[in-house]
Amino acid sequence: MGSAKKSASAARKARIDEMRRAEQARERRNRILTIGASVTVVVALVVGAVVLVQSQDDDKSTDAKTTGSLVAGADGVSVWKGGKLSQTHVNKTVKYPVEPPVGGDHNPVWQNCNGDVYTEAVANENAVHSLEHGAVWVTYTSKADKKDVEALAAKVKQTPYTLMSPYEDQKSPIMLSAWGAQRAVTGADDPDLGKFFEKYVQGEQTPEPGAACTGGKGQ
Questions:
Q1: Model-level pTM?
Q2: Cα separation of 145 and 22, whole Å?
Q3: CA-to-CA dists, residue 187 to 108, 113, 143, 157, 172, angstroms
Q4: Membrane-crossing residues (predicted)?
Q5: pLDDT (tens digit, 9 = 90+) per residue, 86-127?
Q6: Which residues lie across from 114 on neighbouring strands?
Q7: I need a labelling partner for 208 at 20 to 30 A (CA). Which of 5, 48, 63, 107 fits?
Q8: Domain containing 181: what range?
Q9: DSSP assignment string, 50-103
Q10: How many separate domains does the chain show?
Q11: Does residue 35 share a domain with residue 13?
């Protein structure tokens, strides 16, 4: 009889010990899950904060980090002097010191410039990247003669590393821009137009000669 009681007591103690071990194991698992969940929440909050800051930062505009200015030459071409035009890629709207811009910080994606003619304005930041690749950018206002605009478009379409678009905020009806250089022309038959193309399309001023003018941003 005594032996049976002892056996029952030992069995009960063993079950209790097993239950305690199981409970301790559950508590350990719960603690691990709680810690893991807390870490996940913290990481998610940190990542969310970083994304939010970056998003807010991207929405802001920035000044082009340049030194110097355009200086008019005797030949009618204004050339950037007294400093360097920056070439940093940014995902922001850039405030350029001249309109149209001739260089500075710009979007990572260039505007297609393989003789591309745009009927609507293009973003400065994309066009400046095209200038970095050695393109000449032909721009015109609503004051430009329609026949000149059509003749210019025909010339651009036949000239690789050029692009053309309307640009109302410039000081002259028709302007030509390259990296670090700019001039106004009187019309499509202005002899200075051909001279500018000859000198600045993939000219010595090009920061990245031979870089692509296709595969970028199109119409």
A1: 0.73
A2: 89
A3: 32, 21, 11, 17, 11
A4: 32-53
A5: 999 999 999 999 999 999 999 999 999 999 999 999 999 999
A6: 162
A7: 63
A8: 61-200
A9: HHHHHHHHHHSEEE----SEEEE-TTS-EEEESS-----B-SSEEE-SSSS--S
A10: 2
A11: yes
